[in-house]
Design brief:
The protein has helices at residues 3-35, 37-40, 50-81; strands at residues 44-45, 48-49. It is mostly helical. Strands 1-2 form a two-stranded antiparallel sheet. Helix 1 packs antiparallel against helix 3. The longest helix has 33 residues, at 3-35. The mean pLDDT is 88. Residues 8-83 form the Sodium symporter small subunit domain. InterPro entries: Na_symporter_ssu.
């Protein structure tokens, strides 16, 4: 595979990961914190309605978790395409 095709395939896969992870974050922060808040408020977590929890804390926790997931995915992707060597 030529270097250009190799780099293009790498970036296509990287962008796909980004879109998936950002979609998950959007659904958790905007969806759970704003759109579905009334349905989630029927569930309590730590004494607070779950919708409130997602709006105040949950989306931040999920974002941090997604950062670690992205790092892991990128490490695997770097090894797959041979970009892990310094």
């Amino acid at each position: 595979m030529s270097d250009q095709k190799h780099a293009t395939a790498y970036w296509k896969e990287n962008v796909r990961y980004l879109l998936i992870l950002l979609s998950i974050w959007f659904l958790c922060s905007y969806g759970a914190g704003i759109i579905f808040v009334d349905q989630l408020d029927t569930i309590k977590m730590g004494g607070f309605p779950l919708g409130f929890w997602f709006a105040q804390q949950g989306s931040m926790f999920i974002f941090v978790i997604l950062i670690f997931v992205y790092v892991r995915l990128m490490n695997k992707l770097d090894k797959k395409y041979g970009f892990d060597k310094d």
